[in-house]
């Protein structure tokens, strides 16, 4: 292509040369100019001729030097044309130029004459005028251009034409052509414009010709347009579909066919394959000419085999083994399950981070001068070999540790808290933690601008590093203003009451962090950003709280199957931030083959503008059991109040009226005694601790509670019940979270009252022992008619263990495996942890755009055949949404 362009360029210049006279070398003599001015401007006598020479020399003029004798007599002879011609001949010049410059006030004018040394042709005269001495060079340049037309016998361009273009408008081509009508015709200018047209990228051939016209030449640019792309096709591709390949092309149907662009697109496609570890990829292209100046492009792809990492080696490591170092890497060698996992895959970004991980590992183990070079990647046939080159250097231990500066408390009280003091070798990560700890310590006392700088001193002989933490406490800082923005629906006071900082209080970083956590726990906002900026003085700090609200109205939907209800569905509609006041209202229901439940509740979390939460609810439920039907109606009211961080105490009252009907002969004696309407009047007090970072897909925190219920404040039923729960969420490694949960309960009948079966304990189901159906773990009894019955227990224990890991973190999809165990016991039974029912399973949880979704299946590990149990999976799910 380049050779072709050069040929077109030289051939066009040859054609142009045929229509333009060949330029011969012209020798010119320039005489000193006459200066007419009231000021002394005699220096211009020679400066103007020099300027003329500078303008004409690039055009091909050769200037004859002016000897001293000629210079002295020139002024006397400039009026005698014959004398000037003779002067030119004597000097060997073809032409002689002379003239004068006149200045009157601020106006200047230039009269220039030129005559040939031989012949009788009249002299050529040029006149130009201007204003201001600063424009003298412009006037000289214009005059010289006029002289050049006669001096070199050049012709003017009278017209510019474009031909041969079909798709590209002539105006677009004209815009890149710099020569204009009226310009002197120069081959160099035409050559430059041909290059400009070619750079547009639309043409594969450009030809220039000149035509005679009155007063000059018509310049015609003949162009041949490149074809347009009609169709792009691929062959041989298996890894990527045609649509995916097209998405990564910068060319498309209808665009101009540019071979250089096609080749750059091949590079882009090859990069796609190499990112998938197809490093032997080969792509070629074929252009198929079509009618109407169109062309089809076909990319032929030879993908080759996928290449994986065969071996990772280390060079220079003496202290740590290859096995130990490989555990630090994200990159790994191909393993047995590489078809299922990503082992053996080469990811350049991960590989670069691996080098940094190795460096960091050496740094935290005392190798302060360790160096890890960029990994060397070698491709050999169908395998990849990676080599990390390591220069360990000497290993340094911790020397003396000291503190100085403006300390908050004496250093002897601070020293035990330093991490570096517990490290055998110098550890940069421990130093970083110490800096954060000391900074937070001072910041919590109000010194927001405290600065902690570590100074290290190496002892290369004994291989020790002495470290001194230098503390600059600065001034005590106070909160000046708290500005809240971004809340459209949520009222300011709802946000402010969750803050643990207040205006004009001493700055505290821990209370500021707790405030941010509280706002996240409200679950009213998609994002919470808190920035601190200097206030009206150096000891003042402004806090800017910027929130992004999210939908707080939710609906939930769930379904399941149990031997009691058969298939059932549940749903609820709630608003957790009613009218932007933080109030909660919820209407829920459950409808199944043999039951229905409806509940309406309202919660005010801040009664009387204090953190006293108040809740009221009404409900109605109906359930058809095998041996009776139960219909309940009632309501309650409750209050809770925070007493410590994350800890609340609660008190509630409930009144329930239950109607037991359709009692069969094989019902338990307890149920038979309950036939008809029964009233329960109870009070419950509780203590709860909840420090979870979020309610769904929790990653850390604790959730504990203890509740005591006393029934017998009037009504027909009397009992006391205690239920306790413990839960820990512990982050383990890279998103892996463990959950330990245990709970137990006890209920006892009061003298003179009855304890209804529906107040006893059952296990089984989504939020209990998964794998068992709803309430499928119970105790068996015998009624007065000798029939076997299913009854709830007076005590129970339950334990749950979970491992959760984010499968797709950005999408909020988490995988879960679990182990559940538990059992219920009668009044005379002793809790035996050796006979707990067991189940294990797996599931997926997704915090989807429409709300939380749970799909979990459990297997009974100890099925009892006579109960109809087996070890097959029992699936349950629930899902919800936001509006």
UniProtKB/TrEMBL annotation:
Its main location: membrane. InterPro entries: Bac_surfAg_D15, BamA/TamA_POTRA, D15-like, OM_assembly_BamA, POTRA. It is found in: Membrane. Keywords: Cell outer membrane, Membrane, Repeat, Signal, Transmembrane, Transmembrane beta strand. GO terms for cellular component: cell outer membrane. It holds the Pfam family Omp85. GO terms for biological process: membrane assembly. Residues 155-226, 227-304, 307-393, 477-550 form the POTRA domain. It comes from the Bacteria. Residues 1-17 form the signal peptide. HAMAP family: OM_assembly_BamA (MF_01430). This is Outer membrane protein assembly factor BamA. It comes from Desulfosarcina widdelii. The lineage of its organism: Bacteria, Pseudomonadati, Thermodesulfobacteriota, Desulfobacteria, Desulfobacterales.
């Amino acid at each position: 292509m380049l050779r072709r362009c050069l040929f077109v360029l030289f051939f066009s210049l040859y054609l142009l040369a045929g229509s333009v006279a060949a330029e011969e070398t012209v020798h010119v003599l320039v005489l000193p100019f006459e200066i007419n001015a009231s000021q002394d401007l005699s220096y211009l006598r020679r400066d103007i001729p020099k300027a003329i020479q500078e303008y004409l020399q690039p055009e091909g003029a050769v200037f004859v030097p002016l000897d001293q004798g000629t210079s002295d007599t020139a002024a006397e002879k400039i009026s005698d044309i014959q004398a000037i011609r003779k002067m030119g001949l004597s000097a060997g010049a073809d032409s002689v130029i002379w003239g004068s410059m006149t200045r009157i006030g601020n106006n200047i004018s230039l009269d220039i004459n030129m005559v040939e040394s031989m012949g009788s042709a009249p002299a050529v005269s040029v006149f130009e005028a201007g204003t201001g001495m600063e424009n003298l060079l412009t006037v000289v340049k214009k005059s010289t251009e006029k002289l050049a037309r006669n001096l070199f016998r050049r012709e003017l361009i009278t017209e510019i034409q474009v031909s041969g273009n079909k798709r590209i408008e002539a105006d677009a081509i004209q815009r890149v052509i710099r020569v204009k009508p009226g310009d002197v015709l120069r081959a160099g200018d035409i050559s430059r414009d041909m290059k400009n047209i070619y750079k547009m990228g639309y043409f594969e051939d450009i030809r220039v010709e000149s035509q005679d016209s009155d007063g000059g030449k018509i310049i015609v640019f003949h162009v041949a347009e490149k074809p347009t792309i009609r169709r792009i096709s691929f062959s041989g591709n298996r890894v990527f579909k045609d649509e995916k390949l097209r998405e990564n092309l910068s060319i498309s149907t209808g665009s101009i066919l540019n071979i250089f662009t096609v080749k750059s697109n091949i590079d882009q496609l090859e990069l796609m394959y190499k990112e998938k570890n197809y490093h032997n990829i080969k792509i070629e292209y074929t252009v198929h000419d079509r009618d109407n100046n169109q062309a089809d492009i076909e990319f032929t792809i030879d993908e080759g085999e996928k290449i994986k990492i065969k071996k990772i080696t280390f060079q220079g490591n003496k202290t740590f083994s290859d096995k130990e170092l490989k555990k630090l890497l994200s990159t790994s060698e191909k393993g047995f399950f590489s078809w299922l996992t990503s082992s053996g895959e080469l990811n350049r970004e991960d590989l670069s981070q691996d080098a940094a991980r190795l460096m960091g590992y050496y740094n935290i183990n005392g190798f302060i001068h360790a160096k890890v070079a960029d990994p060397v990647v070698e491709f050999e046939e169908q395998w990849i070999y990676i080599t990390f080159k390591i220069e360990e250097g000497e290993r340094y231990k911790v020397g003396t540790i000291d503190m100085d500066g403006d300390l908050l408390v004496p250093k002897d009280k601070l020293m035990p808290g330093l991490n570096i003091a517990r490290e055998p070798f110098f550890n940069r990560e421990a130093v970083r933690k110490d800096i954060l700890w000391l900074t937070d310590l001072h910041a919590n006392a109000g010194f927001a601008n405290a600065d902690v700088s570590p100074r290290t001193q190496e002892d290369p002989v004994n291989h020790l590093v002495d470290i001194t933490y230098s503390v600059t406490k600065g001034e005590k800082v106070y909160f000046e203003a708290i500005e809240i923005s971004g809340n459209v629906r949520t009222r300011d006071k709802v946000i402010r009451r969750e803050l643990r900082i207040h205006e004009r209080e001493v700055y505290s970083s821990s209370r500021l962090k707790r405030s941010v956590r509280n706002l996240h726990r409200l679950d009213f906002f998609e994002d919470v950003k808190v920035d601190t900026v200097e206030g009206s003085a150096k000891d003042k700090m402004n806090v800017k709280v910027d929130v992004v609200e999210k939908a707080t109205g939710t609906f939930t939907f769930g379904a399941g199957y149990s031997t009691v209800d058969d298939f059932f569905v549940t749903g609820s509609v709630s608003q957790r931030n009613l009218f932007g006041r933080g109030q909660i209202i919820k209407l829920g229901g459950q409808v199944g083959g043999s039951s229905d439940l409806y509940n309406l509740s309202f919660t005010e979390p801040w009664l009387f503008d204090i953190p006293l939460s108040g809740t009221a609810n009404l409900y109605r439920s109906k359930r058809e059991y095998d041996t009776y039907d139960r219909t309940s109606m009632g309501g309650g009211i409750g209050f809770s109040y925070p007493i410590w961080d994350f800890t609340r105490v609660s008190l509630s009252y409930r009144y329930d009226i239950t109607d037991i009907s359709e009692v069969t002969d094989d019902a338990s004696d307890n149920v038979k005694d309950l036939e008809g309407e029964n009233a329960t009047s109870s009070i419950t007090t509780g203590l709860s601790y909840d420090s979870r970072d979020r309610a769904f897909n929790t990653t850390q925190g604790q959730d504990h509670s203890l509740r005591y219920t006393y029934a017998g404040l009037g009504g027909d039923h009397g009992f006391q019940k205690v239920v306790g729960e413990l839960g820990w969420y512990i982050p383990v490694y890279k998103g892996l979270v463990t959950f330990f949960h245990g709970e137990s309960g006890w209920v006892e009948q009061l003298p003179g009252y009855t304890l209804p079966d529906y107040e006893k304990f059952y296990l089984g189901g989504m939020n209990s022992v998964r794998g068992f159906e709803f309430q499928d773990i119970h105790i068996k009894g015998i009624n007065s008619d000798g029939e076997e019955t299913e009854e709830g227990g007076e005590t129970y224990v339950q334990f749950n263990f979970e491992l959760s890991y984010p499968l797709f973190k950005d999408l909020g999809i988490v995988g879960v495996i679990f182990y559940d165990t538990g059992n219920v016991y009668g009044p005379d039974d002793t809790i035996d942890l050796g006979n707990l029912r067991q189940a294990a399973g797996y599931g997926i949880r997704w915090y989807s755009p429409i709300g939380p979704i749970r799909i979990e299946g459990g297997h009974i590990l100890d099925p009892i055949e006579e109960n109809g149990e087996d070890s097959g999976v029992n699936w349950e799910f629930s899902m919800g949404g936001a509006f």
